[in-house]
Amino acid sequence: MSSDGAITGNNNSITVRPFGIRDKFGYLCGDLGTCFILGLVNSFLMIYYTNVLGISGAIVGSLYFVIKLFDAFIDV
Questions:
Q1: Is residue 65 part of a domain?
Q2: Does Membrane show up as a keyword for this record (predicted)?
Q3: Does residue 1 lie within any of the structural domains?
């Protein structure tokens, strides 16, 4: 494979365009929407756990911390 972004095989030549700013912006918008929904759900759960179930905010925050820490090691 050559380093100029062209893929050759079976006598066909396909040029691959570089990963540009439009692609990065598209991924940014998708990730931003995901993070917004995740933050909204986590905020709702924090209020639900503290007000409805009566769990201390420190315990809920610690639970979120442990889950995020666990997720950090699992994602590696």
A1: yes
A2: yes
A3: no
